[in-house]
Amino acid sequence: MNNNIINSIEIDLGGSCNLNCFFCYLTKVKTSDKFNKNKLLLDEIIDLINQANELGVQKVILFNNSSNQHPDTAEILKLINKKNMQMEFSLTKPCNNLSVNENALIKCLKHKDSCFINLYGSVYPCAGMRLSIGNIRQNRLKKILFDSEVLANLKNHEFSIKGPCRKCDKFSNCYGCRARTFALTGDYLASDPLCPENQDKLEKITYLPMSVEKLVPQKQGMRVVTNLLTVKERYAKVESIFPANSPFIKKDGSLEEFAYMEVMAQSAGVMDGFEKFDTGKLSPGGFLIGGQKINIYAKTFAGDKLIIDIYKTTKFGNFGILTAKIYCKDILIAEGEVKIYQTDGVNNEI
């Protein structure tokens, strides 16, 4: 049963804030005419509120800085009132109103029953977390929330948060600040490095990029991926460098064609292994069932740095379908779809 149900939504109408949190997406908001023209229209905001109402959302929180008031604020307030939804109005984002640059204990579980939509329609777990889980211009709010693995992991934090936070006596109702954790570590499920409870355990906190050695079952020689660079919603960026003595290298130093499919499959394994890494869960083994729509556009050679963009498209039980694109020096080298089967593996806690 999907539990990605929320009780409130937060909507940014102004694109500015009285705070200056280093992790917030507003530090990157553009002020050019191009971006101003791309803001949500009144009809889109009305449709968003109607969608939220259909989902059973009880409260709408609007952020609208006094120096940049939305011209249709009155119309939006009328709709919220007509829908008998609770309403809050704020000049700042809900970032606990404290200096997040300082070590502070932040007991925030906002992602359990809320989400944030910025003025361009992107949906985030919260206002400060610069990790989009979708956009209401591309999908309905219900689909975004129900399909989000990021949101599901945050809602089930007892099973997904990595590292020393898991052993804290406050863990049942606290997981630190996910926004600053993601900004500092690159891993939205890492332990909070600014929490005072973790200051003597910083070496046990996960940071990206990281080696994939503990994330996949393949050993040196057969392991064709090297580092995990980025993890986002159903997506990861992985690095691969083949040594000259790799069994996947031809006599002329170029990669065997089947090596590209293996890179895609192991990149998929990295995604799943990282999700379970240092959580107490078993890291699954697995094997490649097959691939389709595999296209190879150019040769690469031993020593070349390959960057793999891997996306989860379908998962049913232990079976998964993923699409991947492989780049070398920003040039698309290969792309395709792989089917994998995952089995139980070994515990990979630190």
UniProtKB/TrEMBL annotation:
Domain of life of the native organism: Bacteria
One Pfam match: Radical_SAM
Start and end residues of each 4Fe4S-binding SPASM domain: 108-169
Cofactor(s) essential for the protein: [4Fe-4S] cluster
Keywords: Iron, Iron-sulfur, Metal-binding, S-adenosyl-L-methionine
Domain Radical SAM core: 14-87
Molecular function (Gene Ontology), one example: catalytic activity
Record PANTHER family: GLYCYL-RADICAL ENZYME ACTIVATING ENZYME MJ1227-RELATED, RADICAL SAM DOMAIN PROTEIN
Protein name: Radical SAM domain protein
Source organism (scientific name): Desulfobacula toluolica (strain DSM 7467 / Tol2)
High-level lineage: Bacteria, Pseudomonadati, Thermodesulfobacteriota, Desulfobacteria, Desulfobacterales
